[in-house]
Specification:
InterPro entries: Acyl-CoA_dehydrogenase (IPR050741), Acyl-CoA_DH_C (IPR013107), Acyl-CoA_Oxase/DH_mid-dom_sf (IPR046373), AcylCo_DH-like_C (IPR036250), AcylCoA_DH/ox_N (IPR013786), AcylCoA_DH/ox_N_sf (IPR037069), AcylCoA_DH/oxidase_NM_dom_sf (IPR009100). The chain is of the alpha+beta class. The chain has 13 helices and nine strands.
Length: about 425
């Protein structure tokens, strides 16, 4: 086997999409069937995520050689768009998992990740816990890794927005390692003694993502599970954002489908309308048609940004540092541009679709507002105004977009 063939075998270059998607679509249909009830009653999707785990959904990016499907990034995000159409909460709950998988794919270049690949193929999922709780000054990390008297590494801290961790087997935990004096990722067991997760997320949208508070109290972590943060895959911010774009695209398609069915079934008309049935009213059809086009555009842009991510992924293995850096710049820029446009498209269509119906569309039993609420919540991640500014700074001054950033209390807050 040539060196090129050996490298190719280690990578996730793509599969027959329809074959892979056909495997999961029946599960997506089951998930969609209960989505409205979960929204109405705020039921966390433990059972639905278990269906995906058992089917190997968490391993779709793992190379075929190691038992996964070997999907490319555009294929992954196409599949996530299909899942988001069924239930956008579940895609966000799995966001941290797929980011951790991506990081292990990148790390595999220099150090075998076969153990992690085997875990993913076996169904293990990874949750997310990065954001510090409370009045933490920006730049500070209170979650700490220390060393006890017998040389074991111990981690303690508290996080919020721990999306997906309540459903997971492992937790991707951002911390400061006092031993090595650096920021790290500590991959800890979700089931370890000292790990407590609260379902206290109170957002008006994306209610069932499991994005609550996690407390870590003196949890032992193997040294092999402590990963330097500066070695994290470089296109991570873009990757996280494109998952949101796939989620928004799925929300858009679900909204168009649901409102179309409402129009199809509607019996009441207005005396000053344009047809004997609402489904034949040209103005109503115009509303649906425009929303459909906007949903299509959203998915198309998502796929374009995913192609940029795939180039960034492949560039890591090409032994050309300058080209890899440029590929990461491109991925960050395209994901930001996609975010700005897709957020506007989906927020617009999930509001304007109400023009196809009437006051009955506001019924809480229908929960038709869930599409806008969920889209608004997803779009509130990574503030749009700062992304627009960063894009403008690139266009005018060629200033690189920030690959990593933090949120926290301002040092001036106490004196203000």
């Amino acid at each position: 086997m040539s060196q090129f063939e050996h490298i190719q075998e280690q990578l996730s270059l793509g599969a027959d999409y329809e074959t892979v998607a056909t495997k999961f679509r029946p599960i997506f249909e089951k998930i969609a069937a209960g989505a409205l009830a979960r929204e109405q009653q705020r039921i966390l999707p433990f059972e639905q995520i278990e269906w995906l785990k058992q089917a190997g959904f968490g391993a779709v990016r793992v190379p075929v050689r190691y038992g996964g499907e070997g999907l490319s990034l555009p294929q992954l995000f196409q599949l996530l768009t299909e899942l988001a159409k069924a239930d956008s909460n579940i895609v966000q709950a799995l966001r941290g998992h797929f980011a951790f998988v991506e990081d292990r794919l990148i790390a595999h270049k220099t150090q075998s990740q076969q153990i992690w690949f085997q875990r993913f193929v076996a169904g293990d999922l990874v949750g997310n816990a990065w954001t510090e709780v409370g009045n933490v000054q920006i730049g500070d990390v209170i979650t700490r890794v220390t060393q006890n008297s017998v040389g074991q590494r111990i981690v303690s801290g508290e996080k919020y927005y721990s999306t997906g961790s309540i459903f997971s087997d492992w937790i991707d935990l951002f911390a400061f390692d006092e031993v090595s004096q650096q920021n790290v990722i500590a991959a800890i067991s979700r089931h370890a003694q000292g790990v407590e997760i609260k379902d206290d997320w109170d957002g008006f949208g994306q209610k069932t993502t499991g994005s609550g508070t996690i407390t870590i109290d003196q949890v032992e972590v193997p040294i092999s599970h402590i990963l330097p943060f500066d070695q994290r895959f470089k296109y991570q911010t873009a990757f996280y954002q494109v998952i949101h774009l796939a989620t928004l695209s799925g929300i858009a398609y679900a909204a168009v489908e649901t409102f179309s069915q409402e129009v199809r079934d509607r019996k009441r008309i207005f005396s000053h309308g344009n047809a004997d049935l609402v489904r034949h009213d040209p103005q109503v059809l115009q509303v649906i048609g425009k929303a459909s086009a906007q949903a299509y555009a959203s998915e198309a842009i998502t796929q374009r940004t995913a192609e940029a991510l795939q180039r960034a992924y492949l560039s890591h293995f090409a032994e050309d540092g300058e080209k890899e850096h440029q590929a990461n710049i491109d991925a960050e820029l395209e994901s930001a541009q996609g975010q700005v446009v897709i957020a506007e498209l989906v927020l617009g269509l999930t509001s304007q679709l109400f023009n196809a119906l009437s006051a009955s569309a506001a019924s809480t039993s229908k929960q038709l507002d869930r599409f806008w609420r969920n889209a608004r919540t997803v779009s509130s991640h990574n503030p749009l105004i700062y992304k627009e500014k960063a894009i403008g700074d690139w266009e005018v001054n060629r200033a690189e977009l920030p690959f990593v950033w933090q949120i926290g209390a301002s040092p001036q807050a106490k004196s203000a």
